[in-house]
Specification:
Elements: H1 6-27, E1 35-37, E2 43-45, H2 46-62, E3 68-70, H3 75-78, H4 83-98, H5 119-127, E4 138-146, H6 148-153, E5 158-165, E6 168-180, E7 190-197, E8 202-206, E9 213-214, E10 226-229, H7 238-247, E11 255-256, H8 261-267, E12 272-276, H9 291-299, E13 302-305, E14 326-330, H10 331-351
Helix pairs in contact: 1-2, 1-4, 2-4, 2-5, 7-10, 8-9
The structure holds 3'-phosphate-adenosine-5'-phosphate sulfate (PPS) and magnesium ion (MG) (3 copies).
One magnesium ion is lined by residues 42, 44, 71, 148.
Length: 352
């Protein structure tokens, strides 16, 4: 790790590891009243809040001046009705911050087992994720549980962290506790961390931070390519993906998977293309849902654009602005998918 973000990468991997430890251990103990429905009708669990508290606390210790754009905020927990939930979140966050995780633990940078924190300190840590984003300076993005619906189903979800500098993603770290380490031998166990630093490649580690394996997206043909797509039809258009599959003579059915685990699978050669077209409800994509995935796929040799072929703009604030969808794929596949997407969009326009 001899690049200029070596310390950031070490801290980010350690923070994601601690958060993954928390989310996988809370899953089996989750009870009914530990999930809330947010204003936009999406779920949030004690795991999401506690994982954001853990990551934000570790970042604050190592880089106190860095702003954070985090998905969750603590306002529902500060209200009297949120007290039971809050107590549980504080307990979980402190468990994760003080746990002995072995390999990779270190007393430097505050990433090793630390001291317990007060409720106020942890709520403040969650709320430090309120930065509005923007075009200038350093900022971190945290999605403490991406794919909360997948997490609740016991399927794929991801703990996602990125460092953006002057609107460019420089570092991405994604933890996937339920993803098989070796896709060709899923029975050999799950739990991976993916990490990428701009200009320095992408790699997969085990959940304990060992066995770094470089990632390079292989070439694909219509027979070996298929789409990775969201599970929820409301999050991206399944029918549009089917149309593109038929234009490109793709014969393998799409793989549905929650979270940025889709970007991780793409980066290690599973699938071949991630296509996420808007469903037309005016939803704006959030930067924390794409920033680490973008640098990971680009560093594995792939390309990430919107449906116009433009790069995603991480300098617009907490969202990516007007939603033109996302196309991520290896280099050759990306140009074929982009051409097919534009053909399909033109057909639709011609019909109106
Ligand atoms: N309407 C709409 N359109 C597009 N995207 C939306 C929408 N609503 C929510 N979200 C965001 O989708 C994130 C999960 O995306 P996924 O690809 O994992 O979806 S799915 O779980 O596979 O269905 C999910 O991330 P998490 O909240 O972290 O789970 C949301 O940020
Ligand atoms: Mg959410
Ligand atoms: Mg998300
Ligand atoms: Mg989330």
């Amino acid at each position: 790790m001899s690049h200029s973000y070596a310390i950031e990468e070490q801290v980010a991997v350690a923070a994601v590891r601690r958060a993954c430890h928390l989310t996988s251990s809370v899953f089996n103990r989750l009870v009914k009243n530990e999930t809330l429905t947010k204003g936009d009708k999406s779920p949030v669990t004690v795991g999401d809040y506690a994982a954001q508290a853990v990551i934000s606390s570790i970042l604050h210790h190592a880089f106190p001046g860095d702003p954070i754009v985090g998905e969750e905020d603590a306002s529902d927990l500060r209200a009297e009705e949120g007290r039971v939930l809050k107590d549980r979140i504080i307990e979980l966050a402190n468990e994760a911050l003080t746990a002995e995780l072995g390999l990779g633990d270190s007393t430097t940078w505050g990433i090793g087992p630390g001291q317990e924190k007060s409720a106020e300190e942890l709520l403040d840590a969650i709320d430090r994720g309120n930065h509005p984003g923007g075009r200038e300076g350093r900022m971190w993005t945290i999605d403490p549980i991406d794919g909360t619906k997948g997490f609740l189903r016991g399927e794929q979800y991801a703990v996602c962290l990125s460092l953006i500098v002057d609107a460019k993603v420089q570092l991405g770290v994604i933890g996937c506790p339920n993803l098989p380490v070796d896709p060709s031998a899923p029975e050999n166990g799950t739990g991976c961390i993916f990490t990428a630093v701009r200009g320095h490649g992408a790699q997969q580690l085990t959940l304990n931070g060992s066995n770094p394996t470089p990632l390079v997206i292989p070439q694909t043909t219509p027979e070996t390519l298929n789409f990775l797509e969201s599970v929820e039809a409301a999050h991206s258009s399944h029918s549009f993906n089917d149309r593109i599959s038929s234009i490109l003579n793709i014969t393998r059915p799409s793989t549905r998977m929650d979270s940025q685990a889709k970007y991780c699978c793409l980066a290690r050669g599973e699938g071949g293309a991630y296509l996420r077209m808007p469903t037309g409800v005016g939803y704006r994509e959030k930067i924390w849902d794409h920033a680490p995935g973008q640098v990971l796929v680009e560093e594995a040799g792939g390309v990430v654009t919107d449906s116009r072929g433009e790069p995603l703009d991480f300098g617009l604030g907490r969202t990516l602005g007007e939603n033109f969808g996302v196309i991520a794929a290896g280099k050759g596949a990306h140009s074929r998918v982009l051409a097919a997407v534009q053909e399909a969009l033109n057909e639709t326009k011609a019909k109106v």
